[in-house]
From TrEMBL:
Provenance organism: Capsicum annuum (Capsicum pepper)
Family: Belongs to the 'GDSL' lipolytic enzyme family.
Lineage, opening ranks: Eukaryota, Viridiplantae, Streptophyta, Embryophyta, Tracheophyta
GO molecular function: hydrolase activity, acting on ester bonds
Signal peptide region: 1-27
UniProt protein name: Acetylajmalan esterase-like
C-alpha cells in the first residue's frame, strides 16, 4: 500500500503537469495562433545564445551577475510564472513564444544543472555582450551587468555540452535543431554610450561586434547546425532608458514616433552591417538556412499598430514598472527596487521596465517574426 508521502508526491507531480498544460495553453493564446506554423518545421530542439532579451535563468545562477540583477525577484515573472525565473519581463520572452510555436517545452537555462535539456538549451545571459570582457576593458568600457559570459563563453558552454551529449554524431543529431545566435551585441554599445563614448566611437566598434557574431555562427555550423536565425537590434531610440538618458529639448532630435533619431540611425547602421555579413556568410554555406531576424522592423510595426493591438496610446514609451520622469523610468530607482510601482495592466504597455518589454509586446513581436521568417525556413506547409 502506497505511503501518504508517496501519494502526496504523485499528486504534486500531476498538479505540476496540469499547471504546465494550462500555462502552455495560455502561451498559445498569447501568441494568437490557432495552428502554430513552426510545428511544420519539426524542430526537435532549440538552442539560444544572447543577453537579457532571451535569458531564462542563467544570470541568476551566476553569483556576481545575480547580485546586480533586478530580474531575480517579483514583480518580474508576475503575469505568467507567478514568480521570478530570471527572465527580464513580467512573463514570457520571444524565445518562449518561439518554443511554444514549435510545439516544444520552454527552454531551460544551461546553468540549471538539474534541468531537462531534451528539447534544447538556453545559453543566454542577461547583460552579456558579443565582445569579450577583455576587448571591452581595452577600450575602457565596463560591463555594468557584471558578467563575463560573452558570446564566446556561451559558445564554449555549447561546445562542452555537445561533447557530452552528441559527439561524435552531432551533425546527425542536430539536423532538426533550430539555433538563435542573438540578439546579442547591443549591450556593449549601451555600456559605451552611457559611459561617455561618442556615437562615432560606437560605430567604429560595429565591425568587431559583427565579426564576433559571424565567428559564432561559423562555430555552430561546425557542430552541425543547419537552420540558424541571427537577430538584429531593436530601434533603441524608442526605449525609455535611452529616451531618459539622452533627453533633449531639441525637437528635431525626435522622429514621428518620438524616438531619438541618432540612436535609431545607429541601430540601422549596425543592423545593415550584420545583414551584409550574413549575406556574405551564405555564400560560404549555400546549403545552410541562415536567416536575419528583423527585430528592428518588428518593433516599428508594433509601435505603429500599438493602439489597434490594444496598447494604451498614452503609455507607448512609458515603463510599466518604474517611476519618475516623462517615461516612468529612473536609473536609480528601477523596477524591482522596493517601493517602485507596477502599472495596473502590464498588457497595455510595450515597455516593462524601461529596458525590456512586456509579455504582451513580446508575444506580438514573436508573431511578426514568425510571419517574416517562416517562408525562409523552408519548412513543410
Amino acid at each position: 500500500m502506497e505511503s501518504a508521502a508517496t501519494m502526496r508526491l504523485a499528486h504534486g507531480f500531476v498538479l505540476c503537469l496540469v499547471i504546465l498544460a494550462v500555462n502552455i495553453s495560455y502561451a498559445q493564446d498569447l501568441l494568437k495562433v490557432q495552428k502554430p506554423r513552426l510545428m511544420n518545421c519539426r524542430f526537435d530542439k532549440i538552442y539560444q545564445f544572447g543577453d537579457s532579451l532571451s535569458d531564462s535563468g542563467n544570470c541568476v545562477r551566476e553569483s556576481l551577475c545575480a547580485s546586480h540583477l533586478r530580474c531575480k525577484t517579483l514583480p518580474y515573472g508576475m503575469n505568467f510564472f507567478r514568480k521570478a525565473t530570471g527572465r527580464c519581463s513580467n512573463g514570457m520572452l520571444i524565445i518562449d513564444f518561439i518554443a511554444v510555436e514549435s510545439g516544444l517545452p520552454l527552454l531551460n537555462p544551461y546553468k540549471d544543472r538539474n534541468a531537462n535539456f531534451g528539447h534544447g538549451v538556453n545559453f543566454a545571459v542577461a547583460g552579456a555582450t558579443a565582445l569579450s570582457a577583455e576587448f571591452l576593458a581595452e577600450r575602457n568600457i565596463v560591463n555594468i551587468a557584471y558578467t563575463n559570459s560573452s558570446l564566446s563563453v556561451q559558445l564554449d558552454w555549447m561546445d562542452s555540452y555537445f561533447q557530452t551529449t552528441c559527439s561524435p554524431d552531432c551533425r546527425e543529431k542536430l539536423d532538426k535543431s533550430l539555433f538563435l545566435v542573438g540578439e546579442i551585441g547591443g549591450n556593449e554599445f549601451f555600456y559605451g554610450l552611457s559611459q561617455g563614448k561618442t556615437m562615432e566611437e560606437s560605430r567604429r566598434m560595429v565591425p568587431e561586434v559583427v565579426q564576433t557574431i559571424v565567428d559564432g555562427v561559423r562555430r555552430v555550423i561546425g557542430f552541425g547546425a543547419t537552420r540558424i536565425i541571427v537577430p538584429g537590434n531593436f530601434p533603441i531610440g524608442c526605449h525609455p532608458i535611452f529616451l531618459t538618458e539622452f533627453m533633449t529639448n531639441d525637437s528635431t532630435a525626435y522622429d514621428e514616433y518620438h524616438c531619438l533619431k541618432d540612436l535609431n540611425n545607429f541601430a540601422i547602421f549596425y543592423n545593415h552591417h550584420l545583414q551584409q555579413a550574413i549575406h556574405e556568410l551564405k555564400k560560404d554555406y549555400p546549403y545552410i538556412t541562415l536567416i536575419y531576424g528583423d527585430y528592428y522592423n518588428a518593433f516599428l510595426w508594433l509601435l505603429r499598430n500599438a493602439v489597434s493591438l490594444g496598447f494604451d496610446n498614452n503609455s507607448l514609451q512609458k515603463a510599466c514598472c518604474g517611476t519618475g520622469g516623462e517615461y516612468n523610468y529612473d536609473l536609480h530607482r528601477r523596477c524591482g527596487v522596493q517601493g517602485v510601482p507596477v502599472c495596473v495592466d502590464p498588457s497595455s504597455h510595450i515597455s516593462w521596465d524601461g529596458v525590456h518589454l512586456t509579455q504582451n509586446a513580446y508575444s506580438w513581436l514573436a508573431r511578426w517574426l514568425v510571419d517574416d521568417m517562416f517562408p525562409k525556413l523552408n519548412c513543410q506547409v
